[in-house]
Amino acid sequence: MMRLRLARLLLSDMELLRAQGVSTWRKSYDQAVTLVNQANMALAAREAGLPHAEALMVQAELQLADPTETKDLRPRLKKVEKHLLSAEELAVRFHAEATPRDLDPRVVTPTARLLARVRCQLAEVQLAAAEERERLAAADRERARPKFPKFRGRDAHVVVDFIDETGGGPPPPPGLEPEDSALVAASGAAALVGSAPRDRARALLVAGRCLLFKFLTRVPPPLHPLRPFVPPAPPAPPPTASSTSAAEAASVGGSAAAGAGADGGSRDTPDIMGGGSATPDSSAGAGPPPLPSASASLASIAVTPPPGAYPISPFSTHTDIASHASAAAAAAAAAAAAADAAAASEEGAAALHLQAEAAATLAAALEAAVSVQDWPLAEQAAFELARCYGQQAPATACRSLVLAQACRAAAAGQALLRAAAPPQQPEVLMLAQRDALAASLPTPADNVHYAALRRVLCGLRGAVSRLDVAAAPPVERQLAVLPPDLRVLCLYFSPDGTQLFAAALNIPDPVASAQQMHLQQQASSDKSRKKLDPAGASATSLPKLSLVTRVDCDIGTVEALSAEFRSYRRGVERQIRESIASAAARGVGMTEQEEKRPVGPTKKDKRQGSQSRRPGSKQGGGRGGTNAGGSSAGTQSGQAAPPDSPSRLEIFDPRINAEWARLMDQLEAWFSPLFPWLEAALPPLPRLPAISQDGKRAAGGGGGAGAGGGKSEGGGGGSKGDKGLPVGPPKHKVVLLLDPVFDGLPLEALPHLVATCGSVARAPSLQALAACHTPASVATGAAASAADSHPSPSVPASPGGGLGGLGPDPAFPGGPFSFSGPPPPLPPLDLGRMTTILDPRHECSSPAQARGPYMSPLIPAMSSSELLSALPAAGWWSGFSGEPGRAASADTYAGLLSSATGLLFLGVGRFAAHVPPAVLAAADLTGCDAALLFDRCNTDAAFWAQLYRDNRKSAEQRRLEAPSKVATLLLARGVRTVVVTAAAAPPAVTVRLMTGVVAGLASGKSVGEAVYGMLTGGQLDEFELAHLKANLQVWGAPGMLGQVLTQGGKGGKGGGGGGKGGGQGATAGSKK
Asked: Where is the composition biased (Gly residues) (predicted)?
């Protein structure tokens, strides 16, 4: 047995060395094979049954992992199947001898679990053989054809087709097909361990994959769920006055017939569009959802001709658009008729029956896997369920994909929590105990200790409860919590990394919305219906559309592209420092006072920096104090060229921007197969009609990134002479649900997103996004409900109905996440009570440290006139400011985070290099609404000091300080919105980004609109570096608004150190 364990270790070592590119990886594999062969011979000589069976299973794993490349895997799979059949024979014999006849069927013995494992592995090998047969079917037919002599002037194509039609291929081999044998083995394994959820989930997953394989190989093309994506048809334009008058003239004398025809059309419309709507599933938990009819499913995804067949330009006339819409409707009707004909055939009916069986089996596997927190197994089941539905039921397929991504995010989040948190943290210890019990016990739900651990973890409302998919609300309720205008785009790689799936949810259906608006207009124009309740139409949910597509793509290409962006970010940080230092040495962009100033800090600077003062006080202002330093930050070359200046400094190498442009071109080329899906999910919106000056306030009050306050593009603030000018189009609000492999890609800089979106945010999963939008009272009730009913969670079989429904709670009728009206708004971010961490080591806050172009002192920037004029409440903020020669302890940061309702960091280096990830992982941040992290600017001295500290950290510790890891950790600890800096920037740019985002929040914009408007609105055009326009990322809820709730004086809350008089803390704290 020791040899078997050593062989497994060598196999994992071989995979690790091969991934790292070490040339000696083959030696580990050869050693593992030798050890397993020796163990097999020794165990066979001693007739050790069960250990021999395990040795045969390990030998099969090694043969499957053989790195030797071959064109046909069937001979290798045949050898593996032979070993597994021998192991199954041994396991069956010992299981029959060791199982009493009067044993309770609910008891699962170790021999039964071993036999189930052997059969599951055997079924996987047989299914792989069937897939290999289908992959090489064309080559097999070509090889089986007789040789045809080649003659001049004669074509062999006719003879080959004749042989294929008449010959029918070679006779099938005797016995069952490989997929049927795999289905029998997997079904037997599931029946054998029916009371063990983890083993049963694994067996049901293999059985569901076998049924899905049979369905995909037998389904007619019109019903295939993996057919190519076709964008939905554009909505028909509203009728013009001339067409309305002509229709009225033509309908004279036939009003009764026309009315009957209109009634018939209105009855058919909901049936056509209902299949693609995202309405809540009332039959959640009642078994697998019924498959929609062929015509309804095809019409629900608006089957239309390929993109470009009916181009619609902004200059198209009403007749052109109507003809295009009618042509698309005719194509959809023809496709629906073909699907109905295929479904009515005997072959189609049999295929749909297989699809229903596969969906039910995979849903049962998903329920069993989630109940024991086996996230990789649950992810695989949800992914296969999405493949089962595909384009035939896009709404259910999209929900299955986001569920699979939630399971992947849960596994990654728990691994991140274990790596970042201290080993003695109680939550991490309980998580390790829960996972160990779930892995070792056949029925963990019957264990008292396991049930107690789950109740405690749910009651803590910590990171583990937020990452528990079983305790989460159903997917439909998660979507109901989100704002109606927030579109969700999901990018998910298949578990094997060969296919990329893209899903779009919460997309308004333009056709159904237009029809609903038309019906509402007719109802409002009818005099007999004027007394109806006007809230009835607004309370009804607008029709939603779900779009899903699939692209064959290798995850290695994305990893390589991410590696290139990572190399660029590392190089640009060094080039920024060196260019600024070189320009400062040459005196470029520096005033006479800066040239005469000594390079090192003087005693006066050190004494001034060490003084503690209240934020916003006048201490040190004037005569070279902090106010003077803050004003110099705006007059130095940090604002090297004001917007009205004809020239700007150019101190950076032009090759930096050329390299960024080359990488962005690669990103767009890689993303190009998804452009039809992206354009369908985010269509360009038409321009609104021109309005007068009196209507500007009402039209621009809500405001997007280009439509909300200020003088930004499309905003409502203009001059007196702009009456009648057209208002900018309202832009989309988007959240990207991304796999961890996409963390290093600047997807926010894609041209289509820049042109059509006013807010772009990220989230690890839909579950995390819904948790950010859930009110605190509702989350508390949901956690209490989950803790009370957690011993046996019931997971509905349909992902459309959601996962993790734990039964109704009396405190929340319809479930804790159910709302009768619109979703509750997010709590506002209190701009009068922000906790600041400013330059913790005082490395770029004195004039001597911020010497050179694009440099700006950080701590004096918080008292600059630009910031205080945009938000006077910034003078009340309190927190921690760095002092020369001192470093704050972890307890200091933990105390700041414990009472923070909003966090703002402005400093050099990485945020997590100052505030350790262990502090973040152990802090309770449920009271912190937003964290604005403006970091990653550097100076030469700060860089070398940080490099000295980094050399004393492991590679894993440095990876925890990445922006995506920090954002994921903060969201898991309870923060609703996180803004992180993606790449290095000069200090002056960092100050400009901070000031612009805070000013945007003060003007009434949301966090997402303020950040994305700052990046794309032209405020950064004066700087040279092109990557700055994708330098900020928003994670979590992008719709959080800022509001001054806490009124304070110059003494601010917490005093930040307080001057003379003792800083008496916060004042009355009145609420608006």
From this structure: 618-632, 698-719, 1048-1066
